[in-house]
Prior knowledge:
Strand order of the largest sheet: 2-1-3-4-5
Radius of gyration: 13 Å
Domain Response regulatory: 4-115
Largest sheet: 5 strands, parallel
CATH class: Alpha Beta
Distance between the termini: 18 Å
CATH architecture: 3-Layer(aba) Sandwich
Number of helices: 5
Protein name: Response regulator receiver domain-containing protein
Strand content: 15-25%
CATH topology: Rossmann fold
Shape: globular
Helix content: 40-55%
Organism: Reichenbachiella faecimaris
Number of domains: 1
InterPro entries: Bact_response_regulator (IPR050595), CheY-like_superfamily (IPR011006), Sig_transdc_resp-reg_receiver (IPR001789)
Number of strands: 5
Mean pLDDT: 93
Low-confidence stretches: none
Keywords: Phosphoprotein
Amino acid sequence: xxxxxxxxxxxxxxxxxxxxxxxxxxxxxxxxxxxxxxxxxxxxxxxxxxxxxxxxxxxxxxxxxxxxxxxxxxxxxxxxxxxxxxxxxxxxxxxxxxxxxxxxxxxxxxxxxxxxxxxxx
Length: 121
Protein backbone atom coordinates (compact mmCIF):
# COMPACT_ATOMS: atom_id res chain seq x y z
CA UNK A 1 0.00 0.00 0.00
CA UNK A 2 1.18 3.53 -0.79
CA UNK A 3 0.51 6.50 1.47
CA UNK A 4 0.06 9.90 -0.16
CA UNK A 5 2.00 12.71 1.49
CA UNK A 6 1.80 16.50 1.48
CA UNK A 7 4.24 18.92 3.09
CA UNK A 8 3.54 22.42 4.40
CA UNK A 9 6.64 24.36 5.40
CA UNK A 10 7.63 27.96 4.66
CA UNK A 11 11.20 26.73 4.03
CA UNK A 12 11.18 25.96 0.30
CA UNK A 13 14.52 24.12 0.51
CA UNK A 14 13.12 21.79 3.18
CA UNK A 15 10.09 21.12 0.97
CA UNK A 16 12.36 20.20 -1.94
CA UNK A 17 14.50 17.89 0.19
CA UNK A 18 11.44 16.21 1.71
CA UNK A 19 9.95 15.74 -1.76
CA UNK A 20 13.10 13.93 -2.89
CA UNK A 21 13.10 11.76 0.25
CA UNK A 22 9.41 10.85 -0.18
CA UNK A 23 10.04 9.84 -3.78
CA UNK A 24 12.79 7.47 -2.59
CA UNK A 25 10.60 5.62 -0.06
CA UNK A 26 8.70 2.86 -1.86
CA UNK A 27 5.53 3.01 0.26
CA UNK A 28 5.15 6.81 0.07
CA UNK A 29 3.72 8.90 -2.75
CA UNK A 30 4.43 12.62 -3.08
CA UNK A 31 1.25 14.68 -3.39
CA UNK A 32 2.62 18.21 -3.14
CA UNK A 33 4.56 20.73 -1.08
CA UNK A 34 3.35 24.16 -0.07
CA UNK A 35 5.33 27.05 1.37
CA UNK A 36 2.10 28.96 2.00
CA UNK A 37 0.03 27.17 4.67
CA UNK A 38 -3.23 28.72 3.49
CA UNK A 39 -2.73 27.23 0.02
CA UNK A 40 -1.66 23.99 1.68
CA UNK A 41 -4.87 23.72 3.72
CA UNK A 42 -6.99 24.22 0.60
CA UNK A 43 -4.97 21.59 -1.27
CA UNK A 44 -5.20 19.07 1.58
CA UNK A 45 -8.96 19.37 1.76
CA UNK A 46 -9.05 18.72 -1.99
CA UNK A 47 -6.31 16.05 -2.32
CA UNK A 48 -7.11 14.24 0.95
CA UNK A 49 -3.59 12.88 1.57
CA UNK A 50 -2.90 10.15 4.10
CA UNK A 51 0.02 11.99 5.74
CA UNK A 52 0.83 15.66 6.30
CA UNK A 53 4.32 16.84 7.18
CA UNK A 54 3.79 20.21 8.85
CA UNK A 55 6.03 22.97 10.20
CA UNK A 56 5.11 24.85 13.39
CA UNK A 57 6.46 28.35 12.90
CA UNK A 58 5.35 29.92 9.62
CA UNK A 59 4.73 33.59 8.81
CA UNK A 60 1.16 33.37 7.50
CA UNK A 61 -0.36 31.02 10.07
CA UNK A 62 1.13 28.67 12.64
CA UNK A 63 1.06 24.90 12.59
CA UNK A 64 -1.58 25.06 15.33
CA UNK A 65 -3.87 27.23 13.21
CA UNK A 66 -3.20 25.04 10.18
CA UNK A 67 -4.32 21.94 12.09
CA UNK A 68 -7.48 23.73 13.24
CA UNK A 69 -8.29 24.83 9.68
CA UNK A 70 -8.21 21.32 8.17
CA UNK A 71 -11.47 19.67 7.22
CA UNK A 72 -9.70 16.50 6.01
CA UNK A 73 -7.65 15.00 8.84
CA UNK A 74 -4.55 13.20 7.59
CA UNK A 75 -1.97 11.73 9.94
CA UNK A 76 0.03 14.79 10.97
CA UNK A 77 3.78 14.60 11.50
CA UNK A 78 5.16 17.87 12.81
CA UNK A 79 8.66 18.60 11.56
CA UNK A 80 10.24 21.60 13.23
CA UNK A 81 13.19 22.96 15.13
CA UNK A 82 10.78 24.34 17.77
CA UNK A 83 10.80 21.42 20.18
CA UNK A 84 9.28 23.56 22.94
CA UNK A 85 5.86 23.12 21.29
CA UNK A 86 5.96 19.30 21.12
CA UNK A 87 3.42 18.54 23.87
CA UNK A 88 1.00 21.22 22.68
CA UNK A 89 1.21 19.93 19.11
CA UNK A 90 0.44 16.37 20.13
CA UNK A 91 -2.59 17.65 22.06
CA UNK A 92 -3.64 19.64 18.96
CA UNK A 93 -3.74 16.48 16.84
CA UNK A 94 -0.24 15.73 15.62
CA UNK A 95 0.66 12.03 15.64
CA UNK A 96 4.38 12.70 16.05
CA UNK A 97 6.87 15.52 16.47
CA UNK A 98 10.20 15.25 14.63
CA UNK A 99 13.13 17.61 14.99
CA UNK A 100 14.59 19.05 11.80
CA UNK A 101 16.48 17.98 9.85
CA UNK A 102 15.27 14.63 8.57
CA UNK A 103 18.61 13.05 7.76
CA UNK A 104 17.81 10.73 4.85
CA UNK A 105 15.12 8.76 3.04
CA UNK A 106 15.80 5.89 5.45
CA UNK A 107 15.23 8.20 8.42
CA UNK A 108 11.96 9.38 6.85
CA UNK A 109 10.89 5.78 6.24
CA UNK A 110 11.60 4.89 9.89
CA UNK A 111 9.59 7.90 11.15
CA UNK A 112 6.56 7.05 9.02
CA UNK A 113 6.67 3.35 9.91
CA UNK A 114 6.68 4.24 13.62
CA UNK A 115 3.71 6.55 13.18
CA UNK A 116 1.76 4.03 11.12
CA UNK A 117 2.41 1.31 13.72
CA UNK A 118 1.09 3.59 16.47
CA UNK A 119 -2.01 4.41 14.40
CA UNK A 120 -2.92 0.71 14.10
CA UNK A 121 -3.03 0.23 17.88
